[in-house]
Amino acid sequence: MRSFVCREVAMDLFSFIDCANRTQSLADLFDLLVGSAADEGFGQVAYGALNYEETVRLPDHPMPAIALNFPLDWRNHYFEHKYHEIDPVIRRTASHSKPFMWDQLLERRQLHDGERLVLLESREAGLKHGVSVPLFGPSGRISVLSFASRFDDADPVRQLKHLHALACQFHVAFGELAQPAMGKTAIKLSPRERECLAWTAEGKSSWDIGIILKISENTINFHIKKATRKLGTNSRTVAVVRAIRLGLIEVSGLSGPTSPVWTDRTPTGASAGQPPQSDLASTHNE
Questions:
Q1: For labeling, which of 1, 139, 198, 257 is most exposed (least CB within 10 Å)?
Q2: H-state helical runs in the chain
């Protein structure tokens, strides 16, 4: 019997992170994601592994799907016709480093007829607008998390940053559920690496952080690149989420013990130990 109660009220991003930290199963974690995405009008969700075989998945989900709640008729039609072999979202995820919208794919002339058919039929099935988030893991693993809306007037552009942040948090949390040993591996970041990641979590670009810390933008990029590599990703957003979950950095709005991050100096305008209001959903320089 499930005892998960985080979805009693609508939640912001930090509440989602806090609740995701306490999930114990993929089903609970996926329910949490679906509920949070539905608050934004994008409650149809699909998560899949594109170039590797993931053994942890919801029951009766054929590969490459790990978890999804798209309409059942569409799911059956999709897999019966092997649309996953020609789906432009799946085909083009590896070439995108940032989230992309399905409407934009339809506008591209280079889509093959089969690819265009998949997108048009998905609209007819009730998936009016969609956003897909490429997710890159260790050993070259590529996953994708897609959000779709049943509403004709849904605005994926407006919700893009928030959905991106939800996807990254879900992906990291799922990785820890699927391979618990990875989540327990000791990761050591230098004070400067932690500081740079913490300011990234506040929505600052490398240029902004360089001004704050009075060091060059190239040096900031160097520290962030080292930190993301240690955290097993090449995405700043995923690195920030993973660092938060591991207690390596602290951002406002999260409950629970975290390690102090302001070890070198206090940036101008911020009191010691109190970073400015966090803006994780708008991290720069993906």
A1: 1
A2: 13-20, 26-39, 72-80, 88-92, 102-107, 113-124, 156-178, 180-184, 191-201, 206-213, 217-230, 236-245
148 within 8 A of 128, measured Cβ to Cβ: yes
CB atoms under 10 Å from CB of 83, counted, come to 18
- Edge-to-edge strand list for the sheet holding 142-149: 65-68, 44-49, 142-149, 129-136, 100-101
| Contact predicate 158/31, CB 8 Å | no
Structure tokens at 70: 């798209």
At 194, which amino acid appears? R
Instruction: Measure Cα distances from 167 to 85, 147, 237 in Å.
Output: 23, 9, 10
pLDDT tens-digit map of 18-47:
788 788 889 999 999 999 999 999 999 999
> pTM to 2 decimals?
0.71
pLDDT reported for residue 246: 77
Please, are residues 203 and 264 in contact by the beta-carbon 8 Å criterion? no
**Residue in the block written with tokens 């995923």:** 238
> Start-end ranges of CATH 1.10.10.10 in the chain?
188-282
Q: Give the single-character DSSP code of 267.
A: P
- To the question of domain 6-182 being in CATH 3.30.450.80, the answer is yes
Q: What CATH class is the domain 188-282? A: mainly alpha
Residue 157's alpha-carbon distances to 78, 114, 162, 241, in angstroms, are 26, 26, 10, 22
Q: What is the pLDDT of residues 202-250, one digit of tens each?
A: 888 999 999 999 999 999 999 999 998 888 777 787 788 778 777 788 7
Which part of the chain is CATH 3.30.450.80? 6-182
How sure is the predictor about 273, in pLDDT bands with cuts at 50, 70 and 90? Answer: very low
